[in-house]
Amino acid sequence: MTPWLTVVGIGDDGLVSLSPAVRAIIDTAEFMVGGARHLAMVPQTQAERLLWRSPFADSIDTISAHRGRRVVVLASGDPMWFGAGAMLSRHFAREETLVLPHPGAFSLAAARLGWPLADCLTLSLHGRPLDALRVHLAEDRRLLILSEDGATPAAVAMLLSDAGWGPSRMTALEHLGGAGEAEHRAEAAAWSGKRVADLNTIALECRAAPSVRGLSRLAGLPDEAFEHDGQLTKREIRAATLAALAPLPGELLWDVGAGCGSIAIEWLRADAQLSAIAIERDTARAAMIARNAALLGVPGLEIVHGEAPAAFAGLAPPDAVFVGGGIADPALLPAVWRALKPGGRLVANVISIDGERALYAWQAKHGGTLIRIAISRAEKLGAHLGWRALAPATQLAIVKPG
Predict the structure, then answer these.
(1) Nearest 5°: CA angle at 219, between 215 and 224?
(2) DSSP sequence for 313-381
(3) Are residues 345 and 292 in the same domain?
(4) How high is the pLDDT of residue 2?
(5) Residue 79: CATH number of its domain
(6) Whether residue 331 sits in one domain with residue 249
(7) What is the DSSP letter of 11?
(8) Disulfide-capable partner of 75 in 29, 84, 293, 318 (CB 3.0 to 4.6 Å)?
(9) pLDDT at position 402, please?
(10) What is the C-alpha separation between 374 and 303, in angstroms, rounded?
(11) 121-124 vs 142-146, strand pairing mode
(12) Collapsing DSSP states into helix, strand and coil, what is residue 243?
């Protein structure tokens, strides 16, 4: 199949740096799609024009309706790196498309700063929540970030300062590769709300204040990292639970009876390509889950406020399910089992005798492993240290055949 859809990356300097062959593709297009800035770079031709709709996905049907014609999509820099090409690849076959990249903002920023690009973490805050930055904060880490607009650096600086990362060094690089290229540098704590050009990329060298330590992305965050009302899977049991759930990129978790959301949040922190749904019937706890998710860097956690199993209606089938409450309801485990994908994992923790009975009965019928997790922590007892036992948890872990 001859490609009919060509995605052309353009730098801030416009058409001047494009090869004659790429210019010919643009000049002979029958239908042209792009943002206002990119379309303004191209002289008027006979081509029909479409300004990207918001959200971008709303333009897909219009592009598809021109299948077979010479369609050109104009994009910034490398279209496959947080760009239009990446979005279009989810809707059109590889054989239909031709992508012609240009040096992108990340490559140009790394070149200007002398940072090996392979050693940098690349992110986009364009159309994404700012709180998603929090999960990536680690001492000496270098981040390259695509901004939403000229106010993004100031917003990042405020977040860093509030989170104890005010000493981080920030550089906002404007109009990379263009005539108006410029840099602005300061520590986050000293950024002072300064606005820069809307077209900018942030380079961030993470530095924590002396009293602050970054949070590991491995399972088992300190209990005090979470706001909770006592409904919290304790750190040691939480780490064992995440190990049993065994998250893999691209998988979806249901956290049923989510409490403060600790299991779903740690699942999401493990990898950027994971997703999770926290199901919680209590209104105050549902709000608490949202706050925890934002402060711990995973604002994309979906929260369903409702009673299980009725709340399962309409949800995408999960690859893994954690049940932390409601085991005594005889309808709960059968509903979870039906929803779980073949090959999916079910992990359930209980501390009550009634809950243990339900798990024993389920294990006798469906198999799986049962373990008891008993943890004691050394605590002050007067002038001495003594062992204080946590309530032991019984855990069922089972893989659904398929």
Answers:
(1) 55
(2) TTPPPPSEEEE-S-TTSTTHHHHHHHHSPTT-EEEEEE-SHHHHHHHHHHHHHH--EEEEE--EEEEEE
(3) yes
(4) 85
(5) 3.40.1010.10
(6) yes
(7) B
(8) 84
(9) 84
(10) 30
(11) parallel
(12) helix
Instruction: Express each pLDDT in 260-297 by its tens digit.
Output: 999 999 999 999 999 999 999 999 999 999 999 999 99
**Are 262 and 290 a contacting pair, CB within 8 Å?**
no
Residues in the chain predicted with pLDDT less than 50, given as ranges, are: none
Beta strands in 101-246 (DSSP E): 121-124, 142-146, 169-174, 182-187, 200-205
Tokens at residue 162, please? Answer: 């509030």
Maximum C-alpha span of the chain = 87
pTM of the entire structure? 0.92
Please give the pLDDT value at position 326: 80
Contacts with 384 (C-beta within 8 Å, 6 or more apart), sequence order: none
Contact 32, 47 (CB under 8 A): yes
Domains of the chain: total: 3
Q: What is the 3-state secondary structure (H, E, C) of 48-78?
A: EEEECCCCHHHHHHHHHCCCCCCEEEEEECC
Cα dihedral 108→110→114→116 (10° resolution): -130
Please check whether residue 210 lies inside any domain of the structure: no
Strands (E), 206-319: 252-256, 275-280, 302-305
Q: Which residues pair with 279 in a beta bridge?
A: 256, 304
Name the residue range of residue 173's domain. Answer: 106-205
Question: Are residues 325 and 257 in contact, defined by beta-carbon separation less than 8 angstroms?
Answer: yes
Phi first, then psi: give them for residue 140, nearest 5 degrees. 70, 5
Residue 214 within a domain: no
pLDDT of residue 58: 85
The whole-number pLDDT of residue 106 equals 97
Q: CB burial class (10 A; 0-12, 13-18, 19+) of residue 298? A: buried
The predicted-structure confidence for 110-145, as pLDDT tens digits, reads as follows 999 999 999 999 999 998 999 999 999 999 999 999
Together in a domain, 277 and 351: yes
Phi, psi (degrees; rounded to nearest 5) at 301: -60, 125
pLDDT for 47-86, tens place per residue? Answer: 999 999 888 788 999 999 999 999 999 999 999 999 899 9
Q: Which of 355, 398, 395 is nearest to 372 (CA)?
A: 395
- What is the spatial distance between Cα 369 and Cα 395, in angstroms, rounded to a whole number? 8
